Amino acid sequence: xxxxxxxxxxxxxxxxxxxxxxxxxxxxxxxxxxxxxxxxxxxxxxxxxxxxxxxxxxxxxxxxxx
Length: 66
Description:
By secondary structure, this protein is mostly helical. It has 3 helices and no strands. Helix 1 (3-11) crosses helix 3. The protein starts with a helix and ends with a helix.
């Protein structure tokens, strides 16, 4: 999920917690797909709710003011 997608969801009226939940689900789904391959079964790590919220808040504070 790109920064623009995060900002567009936030500007549509979703709370930062809901945007973080959506971000976490999409990110973890991508990690699951990568891990399906035996070669990459230990690659990446899953995001917690706190990590996702930290990322979303960072994007909103940095780029959301304009």
